[in-house]
Amino acid sequence: MDYTSAKNYTTVNGQRGYRDRDIVNRVEGTSLIADDRNALMFEVMKVITAAGLTPDASDWTQLYQALVKIVAQYAAAASAGFTPVEQGGGPNQGSNKINLGWQAATLLFRISVDGVDQGTLLRCLPTQAGDVSPGNFLFSTTENRFRAIAGSVTGELVDLSDYSHASSGDSTGGMMSYRKSPDGFIRQTGRVITPGVGTPRSYSVQFPIPFTTEITGYGATVLDAALDTNVGGSAGNYDLQHLEMRSAGGFSMTWWAEGY
Fold first, then answer.
1. What is the pLDDT of residue 228?
2. What is the mean pLDDT of residues 193-198?
3. Contact by Cβ (8 Å): 223, 209
4. pLDDT level of residue 155 (50, 70, 90 thresholds)
5. Could you tell me which residues come within 8 angstroms of residue 131 by beta carbon, excluding any fewer than 6 positions away?
6. pLDDT value of position 150
7. Distances from the Cα of 170 to the Cαs of 107, 175, 192, 206, in angstroms?
8. For residue 195, what pLDDT is reported?
9. Which partner from 41, 99, 163, 187 sits 20 to 30 angstroms from 20, CA to CA?
10. What is the DSSP letter of 28?
11. Residues 6+ apart with CB under 8 A from 204
């Protein structure tokens, strides 16, 4: 905000100010311009809203209320040695009493509302470049995992227990394995071993677990291709439960398939 620069301003105590119109002496008054009116309004509104008050055109005491509130807050902070934080009373909030404290045994924050424990809050450590803050989560002691507590947050954090997986093998080197993610995505792979080199060989692999919806990708690789540059293999003729492969020289092969 600044002193007026309106047309026909006058000097008052060394500063630019207003003067009345004097019709008898033919003296023009200072113009009323939008900048002056807006500056005053916005300066006052800044104090009112900064104090947390809702502007009310019918209440002509709000500037006074705001000043009293702000002064009281700073006085309380000076007395307590820190800046107090109000509990509740904000938009979409009740007037509940909130307690936040440190649980030394778990090295995590705990929160309670009106004396009722609400669980443990996730503590965000310093982030590295490119990291994204996880937002608002709580730790569920019954499920032993972090859960989203903000309505705008979708999904949840997962841990290894959210993935199902298994693998098996035999004495010849053959093996199969799969891993299923919480969103239903499945990745399966295996190795089929055939001793020696023989005539073209076909393999029909039964997946460790069947896909339920679709296969989005698959492939196969001949294990011993370095022995003969002419050796090749192929994979196809698949469904949700199996995949067929063929090696031109009877070599062993690895395979993979993924989907839902």
1. 57
2. 68
3. no
4. very low
5. none
6. 47
7. 45, 6, 10, 15
8. 66
9. 41
10. P
11. 242, 243, 244
**How confident is the model over 33-87, as pLDDT tens digits?**
999 999 999 999 999 999 999 999 999 999 999 999 989 888 877 877 777 777 7
Comparing CA positions, the residue from 212, 186, 199 lying closest to residue 246 is 199
Q: Are 36 and 6 in contact (CB under 8 A)?
A: yes
Half-sphere exposure of residue 196: CA atoms within 13 angstroms, side-chain side? 2
Rounded Cα gap, residues 94 and 89, in angstroms: 6
Distance of CA 45 to the CA centre of its chain: 34
Tens-digit pLDDT profile for residues 107-116: 778 888 988 9
Beta strands, E only, the chain? 10-12, 15-17, 98-103, 108-113, 116-121, 137-140, 145-148, 164-169, 175-180, 186-192, 201-206, 215-222, 233-236, 242-247, 253-259
Q: In what order do the strands lie in the sheet with 201-206?
A: 201-206, 242-247, 233-236
- Count, residues in the chain: 260
The rounded distance, in Å, linking the Cα atoms of 151 and 124 is 19
Contact partners, residue 227, CB within 8 Å, separation at least 6: 197, 251
